[in-house]
């Protein structure tokens, strides 16, 4: 006791600060440093990434300006116009079939894209995950490489394939399967194929990530307990990689539903999707409030998808942890 | 009555990993992904105007593209834009990476991740129109017209891509290394300079490469946000595609594809080299 | 005030991690004095606080309460890079982007030593750990044992006053571990540096240390030379953690300093060693090591029935239960070609060698 007292009060003044205080001070310093380090990223994204969303949220409740932009008359008209339209003569409200069909088309195309990507991506990811280690990374690299290349370049390549005198049609005519070219380009089919082509790697990557962790002893156990290939796949593999499946579906669905380039180039102006509708409001149609309202509506759909993702995948991860 | 046991039926070892049809599907996927790109690249070397019938091998369309003033300007602008956004995004992402990984989980961590990944979660078209209106207001109020706006818009969506490999790299790096440095008399700055930074450098380079490629690839944001005269290469291309196809677009696309392949290969090499 | 023979002193050190309900008390008012030039081991199961104490000395953690002194001076306020103390980390943590020589020279360079001097010390260190000519290697090209030696050399190069070793042998296989145990002892003798060694392996602790501190749940239970810890454990945990032990309920009937007499359940009265605290006669627990007993056909001091006989090569383990049901193990050395003296179901008497009964505190 005596020793403790002398040393604490006398010889070394720097230790006057108690352990708790010193720990707290160190903690405060590291917290300050941390926020200093993240601040540039937060500032840039906050200002130029998040602020604009607030602005279009405001715009969606204003009226369109005479030429473009907005005028400061608060109204719900833009939100109403997302799905409704006023009759030109008697001003009664009716459903805006053009908008409704674009939204429906976007939803259906994004969903079909997701399913197609899953059908192709699942076996591919499984195949990659069952390769020897060295081949795996090569496969993963090769499958993901197109994703990083320019979307425009990929869509352009698809145009060359699907055109009336493109490679598919000329091959089929050459082989005498058909006489005149199939109309593929500028149809919903073309947009669906284009979207699947564009976002397929986004399905394979998360699927692979969860399959890589798959414990193949569990599959051995499945076969040992009289499961055939199909039952093992259905009862063991798929439930185990479910988080990967959901992640892949969401990753494909989100960019697909907001697609702009693919429907523009492969849909040929008549098969618009929400993305094109939004762009038109800020372009030729000059209805910024409506464009803003549709943007927010699109974001809402994406948020719903994300919430499904979070609830399924994250909560599952928590359960396992 | 045979006095020996009958020979067993011919058997193959049972492969638990095998699933019928999966292998063919994987190869189909591979062919499906690459065939259009390879055919596109192939026709860029066509002598004639056609993008469907190959006549003779030539670099004619590369020459035409290179001589096209519009292409040249757009390429320079795209490279400048990508380089600047990459620098800013990589610096911001490196700092954020350091702040979010070398510590225990902290208050506000979820918020930081949400903000950094925000550009990935919002459909690009929404970001594009939002940025368009936001910059519109600023330009109206201040009267400033600047290339900086486009750089800023690109920096935003490059940050999460640069952040990904940097964070992954830092998370793979055991915190012990900094402890060792501190134990061996390195001040915090020296520990960063001689240990943390050299060890995280592959992650930073990988992040910069992704950011560069992502900026170079962008169509929608450039299309909507770019000011008058600011035509990036993809924006120039999308204009060209409306006019009818010539192998000139094939040639430009092939070059872009080549650049991406080189950068992404480097990225993969840096990211997966160490892991077995 | 400060004793020059003291290297490290912890005074009433408490370390609490987290706060509120998740609060964990990793160290609870721990005081310990580590002498200069001694091989001191902190031994305990994982989570006992041994690594925390080491990290407090190194400076990676800050004590919530209490003082840490190095050669009589307070160091709790100093960051790790200002403490003349070096650590050998559990998984070596050799810098992968540097050569062996760069790793070893790192601390000296950070201290600002001129390059040629660094090179000289690095060579000395390479010789010391018997890794001459390997300075230019990449650390990834080294075997586990070599990496271990580099980690040691790196921590020893700046000539620290105290070397801290955090389970440095746990990643090695058994044979290498035995070699490194001898190697560590040699290095400690040659350098004369105080070693503070953390381990959960009792054998490692017993073979290398000058003194051992047995820890559990944030407390130091007993400090002493390996032989004292083994032969005279003062608490049930210490006896249980180190080696195999029999616990027998007994009655303490006579006390004479550190010696006494106990009455065993069989009624036999035998001499026993007492722990270094004040005890009063009454119910106690005694420990008897399995190798300190013999089995005899007649009564002995304890009687039991053999449940199980297990042959181990050098010796045979007899698992018994005493007449009151207490399990008991006897370990008898085998003679060449001798058959087991007892088989399952046999009744046997147990005799205890001199001075082999230790009374516990609890």
Q: What descriptive keywords fit this protein?
A:
heterotrimer; A: 321 residues; MetI-like fold; two-stranded antiparallel ribbon; two-stranded antiparallel sheet; 74% helix; disordered N terminus; C: 362 residues; alpha+beta; Rossmann fold; OB fold (Dihydrolipoamide Acetyltransferase, E2P); 2 domains; 5-stranded antiparallel beta sheet; globular
Secondary-structure map:
The complex is a heterotrimer of chains A (321), B (276) and C (362).
Chain A: H1 2-11, H2 19-59, E1 63-64, E2 70-71, H3 77-83, E3 84-86, E4 93-95, H4 97-129, H5 133-148, H6 151-162, H7 167-174, H8 188-212, H9 216-224, H10 229-240, H11 242-257, H12 261-266, H13 274-282, H14 288-320
Antiparallel strand pairs in A: 1-2, 3-4
Chain B: H1 22-43, H2 60-67, H3 69-101, H4 109-121, H5 124-142, H6 148-172, H7 176-183, H8 188-217, H9 220-225, H10 233-242, H11 247-272
Helix pairs in contact in B: 1-11, 2-11, 3-6, 3-8, 3-10, 4-6, 6-8, 7-8, 8-11
Chain C: E1 6-17, E2 24-35, E3 39-43, H1 50-58, E4 65-70, E5 73-74, E6 85-88, H2 100-110, H3 115-128, H4 144-156, E7 162-166, H5 174-191, E8 194-199, H6 202-208, E9 211-216, E10 219-224, H7 226-231, H8 236-241, E11 246-256, E12 259-263, E13 269-273, E14 282-288, E15 293-296, E16 302-311, E17 315-322, E18 327-333, E19 347-352, E20 357-359
Parallel strand pairs in C: 3-8, 3-9, 6-7, 7-8
Antiparallel strand pairs in C: 1-2, 1-4, 4-5, 9-10, 11-12, 11-14, 12-13, 14-20, 15-19, 16-17, 16-19, 17-18
Helix pairs in contact in C: 2-3, 2-4, 3-4
């Amino acid at each position: 006791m005596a020793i403790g007292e002398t040393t604490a009060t006398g010889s070394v003044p720097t230790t006057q600060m108690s352990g708790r205080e010193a720990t707290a001070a160190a903690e405060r310093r590291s917290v300050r440093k941390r926020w200093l380090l993240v601040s540039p990223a937060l500032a840039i994204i906050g200002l130029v990434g998040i602020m604009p969303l607030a602005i279009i949220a405001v715009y969606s409740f204003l009226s369109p300006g005479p030429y473009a932009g907005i005028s400061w008359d608060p109204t719900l008209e833009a939100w109403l116009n997302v799905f409704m339209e006023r009759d030109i003569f008697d001003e009664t409200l009716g459903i805006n079939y053009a908008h409704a069909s674009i939204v429906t088309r976007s939803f259906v195309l994004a969903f079909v894209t997701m399913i197609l990507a899953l059908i192709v991506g699942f076996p591919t990811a499984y195949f990659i995950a069952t390769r020897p280690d060295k081949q795996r990374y090569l496969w993963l690299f090769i499958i993901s490489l197109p994703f990083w290349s320019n979307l425009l370049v990929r869509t352009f390549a698809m145009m060359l394939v699907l055109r009336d005198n493109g490679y598919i049609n000329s091959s089929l005519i050459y082989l005498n399967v058909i006489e005149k070219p199939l109309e593929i380009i500028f149809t919903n089919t073309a947009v669906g194929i284009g979207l699947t082509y564009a976002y397929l790697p986004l399905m394979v990557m998360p699927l692979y990530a969860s399959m890589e962790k798959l414990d193949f002893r569990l599959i051995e156990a499945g076969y040992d307990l009289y499961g055939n290939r199909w039952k093992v796949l259905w009862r063991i593999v798929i439930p185990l990689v479910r988080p990967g499946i959901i992640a892949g579906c969401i990753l494909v669905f989100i960019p697909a539903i907001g697609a702009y380039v693919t429907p523009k180039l492969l849909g040929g102006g008549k098969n618009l999707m929400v993305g094109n509708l939004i762009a038109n409001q800020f372009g030729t149609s000059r209805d910024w409030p409506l464009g803003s309202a549709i943007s927010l509506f699109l974001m809402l759909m994406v948020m719903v998808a994300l919430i499904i993702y979070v609830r399924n995948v994250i909560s599952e991860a928590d359960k396992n942890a | 009555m045979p006095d020996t046991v009958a020979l067993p039926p011919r058997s193959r070892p049972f492969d638990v990993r095998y699933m019928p049809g999966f292998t063919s599907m994987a190869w189909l996927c591979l062919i499906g992904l690459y065939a259009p790109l390879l055919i596109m690249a192939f026709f860029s070397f066509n002598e004639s105007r056609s993008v469907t019938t190959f006549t003779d091998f030539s670099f004619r369309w590369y020459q035409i593209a290179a001589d096209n003033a519009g292409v040249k300007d757009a390429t320079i602008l795209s490279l400048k834009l990508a380089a600047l956004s990459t620098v800013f995004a990589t610096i911001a992402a490196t700092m954020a990476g350091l702040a979010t990984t070398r510590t225990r989980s902290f208050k506000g961590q979820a918020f930081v991740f949400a903000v950094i990944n925000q550009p990935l979660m919002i459909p690009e078209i929404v970001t594009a129109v939002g940025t368009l209106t936001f910059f519109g207001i600023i330009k109206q109020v201040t009267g400033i017209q600047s290339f900086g706006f486009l750089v800023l818009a690109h920096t935003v969506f490059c940050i999460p891509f640069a952040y990904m490999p940097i964070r992954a790299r830092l998370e793979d790096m055991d915190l012990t290394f900094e402890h060792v440095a501190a134990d061996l008399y390195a001040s915090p700055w020296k520990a960063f300079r001689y240990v943390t930074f050299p060890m995280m450098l592959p992650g930073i380079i990988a992040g910069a490469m992704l950011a560069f490629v992502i900026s170079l690839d962008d169509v929608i944001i450039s299309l909507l946000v770019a000011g008058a005269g600011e035509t990036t290469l993809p924006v120039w291309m999308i204009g060209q595609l409306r006019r009818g196809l010539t192998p000139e677009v094939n040639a430009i696309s092939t070059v872009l594809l080549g650049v991406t392949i080189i950068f992404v290969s480097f990225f993969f090499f840096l990211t997966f080299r160490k892991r077995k | 005030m400060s004793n020059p023979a003291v290297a490290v002193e912890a005074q009433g050190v408490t370390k609490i991690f987290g706060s509120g309900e998740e609060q964990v008390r990793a160290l609870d008012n721990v005081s310990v004095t580590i002498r200069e030039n001694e091989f001191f081991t902190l031994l305990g199961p994982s989570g006992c606080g041994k690594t925390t104490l080491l990290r407090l000395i190194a400076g990676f953690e800050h004590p919530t309460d209490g003082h840490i002194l190095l050669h009589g001076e307070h160091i709790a306020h100093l960051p790790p890079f200002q403490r003349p103390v070096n650590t050998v980390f559990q998984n070596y943590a050799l810098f992968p982007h540097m050569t062996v020589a760069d790793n070893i020279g790192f601390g000296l360079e950070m201290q600002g030593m001129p390059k040629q001097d660094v090179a000289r010390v690095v060579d000395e260190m390479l010789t010391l750990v018997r890794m001459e000519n390997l300075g230019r290697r990449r650390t990834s090209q080294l075997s586990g044992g070599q990496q271990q030696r580099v980690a040691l050399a790196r921590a020893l190069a700046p000539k620290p006053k105290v070397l801290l070793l955090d389970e440095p042998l746990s990643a090695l296989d058994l044979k290498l571990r035995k070699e490194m145990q001898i190697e560590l002892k040699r290095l400690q003798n040659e350098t004369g540096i105080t070693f503070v060694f953390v381990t959960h392996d009792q054998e490692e602790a017993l073979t290398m240390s000058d003194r051992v501190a047995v820890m559990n749940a944030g407390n130091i239970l007993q400090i002493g030379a390996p032989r004292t810890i083994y032969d005279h454990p003062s608490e049930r945990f210490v006896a249980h953690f180190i080696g195999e032990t029999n616990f027998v309920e007994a009655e303490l009937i006579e006390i004479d300093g550190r010696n006494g007499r106990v009455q065993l359940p069989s009624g036999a009265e035998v001499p026993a060693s007492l722990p270094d605290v004040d005890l009063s006669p009454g119910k106690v627990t005694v420990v008897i090591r399995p190798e300190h007993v013999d089995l005899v056909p007649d009564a002995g001091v304890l009687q039991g029935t053999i449940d199980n006989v297990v042959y181990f090569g050098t010796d045979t383990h007899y698992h018994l239960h005493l007449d009151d049901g207490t399990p008991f193990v006897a370990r008898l050395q085998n003679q060449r070609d001798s058959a087991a003296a007892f088989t399952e179901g046999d009744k046997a008497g147990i005799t205890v060698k001199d001075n082999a009964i230790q009374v516990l505190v609890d």
